[in-house]
Amino acid sequence: MYIAHAGHWLVNVAYFLPVVVFLAWLVVTQVKERRRGRSDGHSHST
Amino acid sequence: MTFLAHGLVARSDLPIPEWLFGWAAAMVLVVSFVALAILWPEPRLERERWRPLPGDIGRLLGSRPVEVLCGAIGVFLLGVVVYAGLRGAQSPTANFAPTFVYVIFWLALLPASILLGDVFKAFNPWRAIGRTVGWIAGNAAREGLPAPLAYPERLGHWPAAAGIFAFACMELVASNGDRPENLAIATLVYSALTFVAMALYGVETWISRGEAFSVYFNLFSRIAPIETRDRVVGLRRLLSGLPALRPGAGTVPLLAVMIGSVTFDGASEAPIWTGIAPDIASFFQDVGLSPQNSLELTFLIGLTATILIVYGFYMLGALGAKSVGGGFTTTRLARAFVHSLVPIAFAYVAAHYLTLLLFQGQSIAFLASDPLGDGSDLFGTADSQIDYTIIGANATWYWQVGFVVVGHVAALTLAHDRALALYDQARLAVRSQYWMLAVMVGFTSLALWLLSQANA
């Protein structure tokens, strides 16, 4: 049923795609920075 | 549940799909963000610059006779609303009260506040009555009036948030919220509560902190380049009134109510709501409520849930900003950036109610001539008609998108400026704004989706 009406809800999803993409980028960037910060901390301590 | 349809018509010949406007708007925000990060390295809006209007114009406009005249007009209009509501025809479109309250007062005052400053403060009937009564009582009392109570800090903007929520319930939840008699009674009840609060805390304190409509219009007036100080009207930098806002308890919930209520009004026309609302209402009917009460309770749940979602989304942005460092709490950050939500609230109202204001606003011409709906023609305009051709469907859409984009870019600018003032490291300031950008993109997408639903 959902697949049959995909045209309807996909248009709604399209509106929010920029938010999803941006949030995903933000989370990935933050996780990468934290990892980098942790590895920098390790290299300083050794 | 609103008494007036928003008068929108479907668009058929837009050059690109509507959702693509959402993507373009998001791109505008991202580009604006980058431009701000490069070209706006120091806080500029935090410093207040105000100068009086040239000549004696500023002094004349802010003079006591003008203030008394404006207050008298406000009191007269309040009286007309109550009288028309109680004595006039009980048809929402034939009576002066509903159109005046929901269109002229609620909507037309908003652009007036954005352009001319705190117009409502001058016309506020409750302030005018409160000050007059206080002046008379002060002269009559031999030993002077007792000092008003200190306004509790924990109350903050909570009374204003509750007042705007109650108004939204009247407009969007109550089945008979557009009935003139009900509006008149609600106006009388609200007036009585306001007078009691003014007597307790003082007229100016209650007006600036607790009275819902004063606080509401004052927030929007902070966008304006015009401000009155010490009875003199003067000019200031556009948007610079907002950083001067002192947020407290209830300020973030107030903004959430302002944005959330418009969001719900739009979402209630969307299939996502029209699909589930009957199921919720029938559940309440099954447990014994009347059909009308079931529907009202369903809409109350929808309105409350939407406001909570808006509040939660903003707090999520503040939580994200906290995660970049700087040592601020989430509450501190939420309050520090809350003034940036005001242009967003404006964008939501302006875009959503544009056609209602432009079309239904015209009906005040014939309602002013026949306020009771009894066939009178006081000003010879009783036969005037609404001109639905003043704006086309596509032009409406472009204006709506324009309001949404400009409102969110203004919000982004305010947040960026505040971040520069708040953080001692420029790097942290920019990183904190990634999260605010996410909030802005989210609200932009939501606004355009809502508009597309209303026009579907």
Describe what this molecule looks like in 3D.
The complex is a heterodimer of chains A (46) and B (456). Chain A has 46 residues and is an all-alpha fold. Chain A has one helix and no strands. The model of chain A has no long low-confidence stretch (mean pLDDT 77). The mean pLDDT of chain B is 92. Chain B is globular and about 65 Å long. Chain B has a three-stranded antiparallel beta sheet. Chain B is mostly helical and 456 residues long. Chain B has helices at residues 18-39, 57-61, 64-87, 96-116, 119-123, 125-140, 158-172, 180-201, 203-209, 212-221, 251-267, 271-286, 291-323, 330-336, 341-360, 364-369, 393-422, 426-454; strands at 50-52, 226-229, 232-236. The chains are: A mainly alpha (46), B mainly alpha (456). Chains A and B meet through helix 1 of A and helix 1 and helix 18 of B.
* Quaternary class: heterodimer
Largest sheet composition of chain B? 3 strands, antiparallel
Find the structural class of chain A using helix and strand composition: mainly alpha
Find the biggest chain interface: A-B, 14 and 23 residues
Residues in helices of chain A, as a percent range? over 70%
The ordered string of helix (H) and strand (E) elements of chain B is: HEHHHHHHHHHEEHHHHHHHH
- Rg calculated over all Cα atoms of chain A: 19 Å
Order of strands, main sheet of chain B, comes to 1-3-2
Instruction: List SSEs of chain A in N-to-C order.
Output: H
